[in-house]
Write a structure and sequence with these properties.
With 165 residues, the protein is an alpha+beta fold. The protein contains four helices and eight strands; from the N terminus they run ααββββαββββα. The chain has two domains: 1-31; 38-164, PknH-like extracellular domain (Protein Transport Mog1p, Chain A), CATH 3.40.1000. It is globular.
Length: 165
């Protein structure tokens, strides 16, 4: 009789294991490892494709934290040959998604919202200076292109970066 009870238990254990795996899979599959070189999130080839011009490798420097107690970010400065275009890409990786969301919300009034593109990261906006700010998970990033591209081009760049996260 005990053997029969064990046999009845096997399908239930297997079903429970599959259910747990199915619930955890989206979290595991959606967590992408960020490159150590944060500038790799926006390659020069993508800039060339979207805004035109010939961009070389970016110069990288440390971006100061937005507020005390937060980690510094990475600033990537790209320069286009000939046309004189410039792109500033700043990336911050916060300790948690909640911290990133709180920081993003605190910073928004400083820049002023011109428009809010839908379906871009967790939230995003184009500021009064025509730069785009995006929050996705625990990552916040900013892209400013000079001369100012169309909103479509700016959003396309930001969507490409968000897709890497």
């Amino acid at each position: 009789m005990r053997a029969v009870q064990r046999l009845r238990l096997i399908p239930r254990v297997m079903l429970a294991t599959l259910a747990i795996g199915a619930l955890m899979a989206p979290a595991v599959l959606s967590a992408k490892e960020l490159p150590t070189d944060r500038c790799a999130l926006l390659p020069a080839s993508e800039l060339q494709k979207v805004v035109g011009g010939t961009f070389g490798a970016p110069g990288s420097s440390v971006a100061p934290p937005a507020f005390a107690g937060l980690p510094p970010g990475t600033e990537c400065d790209y320069t286009a040959g000939g046309a004189g275009g410039k792109v500033v890409f700043i990336v911050y990786v916060d300790p948690s998604a909640a911290t990133a969301k709180e920081t993003f919300a605190k910073l928004t009034p400083y820049y002023g919202v011109k428009s809010s593109p839908p379906h871009l990261g967790d939230t995003a906006y184009v500021d009064q200076s025509n730069a785009i700010h995006v929050l996705k998970g625990k990552v916040r990033f900013y892209i400013n292109v000079t001369p100012t591209p169309s909103d479509r081009e700016l959003i396309e760049l930001a969507a490409w970066v968000a897709g890497q996260l």
